[in-house]
Amino acid sequence: MGPRAGDEERPTLEDVAAFAGVSRSTASRALNDDAYVSAAAREKVLAAARDLGYSPNQAARSLVTRRTGAVAVVLSEPEARLLDDPYRTAVMRAGYRELADVGRQMVLIFSDTREDLSKTVRFLEGGHVDGALVFAPHRADPLPKALRLLRIPVVFGGQAAGIRRGVHVVDFDNEGGARLAVEHLVAAGRRRIATIAGPQDQSAPIDRLAGWRKTLLDAGLDPADLAEEADFTLSGGATAMSALLNRHPDLDAVFVASDMMAVGALRTLDAAGRRIPEDVAVVSFDDNATLAPAMDPPLTSVHQDPREQVHAMVETLMQLLDDQGLKPRQHILPVSLAVRASS
């Protein structure tokens, strides 16, 4: 009978080996999922470990493997903005779940100021984590360039401050998503299609704005003066929608670069007495599960799944940790359009 909670001594690897009737080396290989252990021996060892309440000494194991079992998720944005952003919140949840699924502990880091930058780099190069998943969307952000000198693998979610070569990136097809949105509006007979663009210091909203413009031109429609930049917030979307209505009261559709801004746009349109979608059709980007379907009317939105992105990032990181010789690449994930009553 194995030691119970409260016993003074924890079971050792030798105890597990003796309980299973195998050598210490066989027990060690079985617990480390070594291929050179028979299925029968592995089953005996795992059963013995469960019965004895044995757990390996992670600190001792890390001395041998030089692995910590931890992965950093770095978000290079102001903390207040991150916690108010439903997409980044979804990324954090996805990071925790996806890393847990591969037996890794998530270490969450917010990096905003210059002081944060130096602290982040020192922490990452200090041997505390095995790798990093980094979200640094701003093109002027110095963090991605600083991280290129690290000896741990790094995978970026979205474009790495405009760095296109020598980095591992998992991103969504932002330009293609904007094309889906605008083609949908054109097919519905809309001809004055405005856009509320996201901050133009970030690659994703730049690509979404480019997709909107190119699709209008391909349809023979004039995009001149029909774009308004905002900051991915509800209030920013409301203010931008008001500006567009003042300039172009005859607009009959708007493509909004995020669900959160679209919520603000809907409020402005409602206050202006515009019916959705009869007077103005609205299509947004993100398809956040807590926002898009819950709006009145429910939002048509370009669907991108944060967990799909983080899953691909973790998969890439695991390949890098296994030293599979993976060359840096831009992995672009497809998007789709979830059509609802707003368009």
TrEMBL record:
One of its GO terms (molecular function) is transcription cis-regulatory region binding. Residues 11-65 form the HTH lacI-type domain. It holds the Pfam family Peripla_BP_3. This is Transcriptional regulator, LacI family. SMART domains: HTH_LACI. Keywords: DNA-binding, Transcription, Transcription regulation. InterPro entries: HTH_LacI, LacI/GalR-like_sensor, Lambda_DNA-bd_dom_sf, Peripla_BP_I. Transmembrane segments: none annotated. It comes from the Bacteria. It comes from Amycolatopsis pretoriensis.
